[in-house]
Amino acid sequence: MAEVHVIGQIIGATGFSESSLFCKWGVHIGGAWKLLSGVREGQTQVDTPQLGSMAYWSHPIDLHFATKGLQGWPRLHLQVWSQDIFGRCQLSGYGFLHIPSSPGAHSLDCVTWRPLGGWREQLARAFVGGGPQLLHGDVVYCGADRYRLHTAAGGTVHLELALILRNFSRYGIEC
Amino acid sequence: MAAVNPTVFLVMVNGQVESGQFPEFNDLYCKYCFVYGQDWIPTSGLEEGISQITSKSQDRQRSLVWNFPIDITFKSTNPYGWPQIVISVYGPDVFGNDVVRGYGAVHVPFIPGRHKRTIPMFVPESTSKLQKLTSWFMGRRPEYTDPKLVAQGEGREVTRVRSQGFVTLLLNVVTKDMKKLGYDTNTLDMQTSSVIDLSEGILK
Fold this sequence. Notes:
Radius of gyration of chain A: 18 Å
Shape of chain A: globular
Strand order of the largest sheet of chain B: 3-5-1-9-8
Strand order of the largest sheet of chain A: 3-6-1-10-9
CATH topology of chain B: Immunoglobulin-like
Order of helices and strands of chain B: EEEEEEEEHEEHH
Number of helices of chain A: 1
Strand content of chain B: 35-45%
CATH topology of chain A: Immunoglobulin-like
Radius of gyration of chain B: 20 Å
CATH class of chain A: Mainly Beta
CATH class of chain B: Mainly Beta
Shape of chain B: globular
Low-confidence stretches of chain B: 188-204
CATH architecture of chain A: Sandwich
Mean pLDDT of chain B: 85
CATH superfamily of chain A: C2 domain
Structural class of chain A: mainly beta
Oligomer: heterodimer
Largest interface: A-B, 48 and 47 residues
């Protein structure tokens, strides 16, 4: 079986209007793939930056996959949350990205979006906080049910991932 | 001579903890240590180090120069658990107590060559205002019992941090026998060659 190592960090986020941010992340893989070692999902610390507006998480990721087929190449899905002064958390953005398919070091930016809801929800979010969230998280990385949503842009999450592939050339795969 | 069919690969890392940027603080020293997985064994060099105490430079950069050497070689059978460098920076507060000014971590670069890495540094924060005040007076701020925690992904969801500086590392990496073991780490990154900064174009 061919193997894929994904090693790197979720560096941080820019462009969000809130200041104390954290990120929940997870990996989704197809049926032919197996996660041999490493954690499948996690959550970063809450960072309140003192210099500039970028929140830094430096959250390490180290994953080892084995695969029997190319379909279902791993994708990373992210949820950015913000914490207010009362310690309440509200959703700031959903996003996903495919793990790159070529070996080497990649510096990646993941754009995010959040559901808007109706005018009542928008008004409530502006004054009280909170706001609509997705009931099923898989909408983030599956395209099937997206058309029913109305969304707004969030900020950008920055990642640095390195890929190490093993035995792909033995099966004639060109990455 | 090297064996024809290797079972381990080697990663040699050398370089230095070059400098730090901490606008709010002065007279800082740094510690470095390596965190790595079960399959990794350091074969030579020092895993940990403590630098001198340095003051800010007089120029406009106001950087804290350590110029502290790192030199280590690892061997492993599996890239999982690839070594990370954990940097922690300490310095005196207004009462002269040694307190932590930042933790940071980065993976050792994967691709052979010379790499410059600037890593963000953060400190854990007290959760309550009262605790924040008493810890300031007592000079006992929240810190991690083990700095190696910053290299782990689990158990971070409860911590609140404040990022307040940067440390620059210079690292040279040489690998041996990775290709022979079937690992492919090198490629042309199409992204870097073709990217036009979109946001800059709109703003100008």
